[in-house]
Amino acid sequence: MAKLTDFKVLTFDCYGTLIDWERGIIEGLKPLTKQIGQELSRNAILETYASHEAFQQQLNPAKPYREILAIVYQELAAQFGVAVTRDECLRFGHTIPKWPAFHDSAGALQYLKKHYKLMVLTNIDNESFSASNEKLQVEFDAIYTAEDIGSYKPSLLNFEHLFRSLERSGIKKEEVLHVAESMFHDHEPANKCGLASCRIYRRFDQSGFGATLKPNEMPTFDFQFNSMADLVRAHHEELRS
Asked: Given this structure, which CATH class describes domain 22-98?
């Protein structure tokens, strides 16, 4: 059975794992959702968002994420029968810097930095991630964005890019643990690539998959914790045992 201390590198999904993107999405969509003539649940909004986001990422893999969000806003408005301007759509795309970090992310990363190399594999553009990174208060050893790679997870191209970069640094896949919330974007492709993974189950007290699609096949993972703080506690216990 694998132990957390078996690994030398932690690669992170950021949005949904370290940054509370669902809260950010809900807040950013309020100018639109307040105009809808029907009351939608939080999960209904997130699930509708997820379907449009995944489609646009597949259709426009080279577009920066903030531009994907602008298109998603426009598509959501059309679906809900709300008239919006181009500026309103672009404004939603630029809400990412306001998305908050989970309360335990910065402290957990600072602790883990003492024991691992920390890297990010994210479906985001460089400008937006830079703003989020300030909230995480840690210097990552490497940052791999969808903008640099030219595709979005769950595409295996993103993971193949990661593996090539790791290989150039002399790091073996077996030394890497991928830490993420999304079963669709991260754990399913990690399974396909033979990459060990740790699920941070931020939605443990909620139903459904929120702002991510349901995976085609339910993936497995090597570890599961409800928070980054729980991951840190488990690592600390391993060191003590």
From this structure: mainly alpha
Tokens of 42: 């939080």
- Which range is least confidently modeled, 36-50, 51-65, 185-199? 36-50
Q: What is the spatial order of strands in the sheet that 142-145 belongs to?
A: 142-145, 117-122, 9-12, 176-180, 196-200, 223-225
Half-sphere exposure of 129 (CA within 13 A, CB side): 24
Q: What residues are annotated to the active site?
A: 13
Q: What is the pLDDT of residue 37?
A: 73
- List, for residues 75-110, the tens digit of each pLDDT value: 999 999 999 999 999 999 999 999 999 999 999 999
Which of 2.30.42.10, 2.40.50.320, 3.30.450.150, 3.40.50.1000 is the CATH number of 4-20+100-240? 3.40.50.1000
Residue 140 half-sphere exposure toward CB, CA atoms < 13 A:
23
51 exposed, middle or buried (CB, 10 Å; 0-12, 13-18, 19+)?
Answer: middle
Q: Per-residue DSSP letters for 142-210?
A: EEEEHHHHTS-TTSHHHHHHHHHHHHHTT--GGGEEEEES-IIIIIHHHHHHT-EEEEE-TTTTSSS-T
In the chain, the percentage of residues whose pLDDT exceeds 70 is 100
CA 85 to CA 198: how far, in whole Å?
Answer: 41
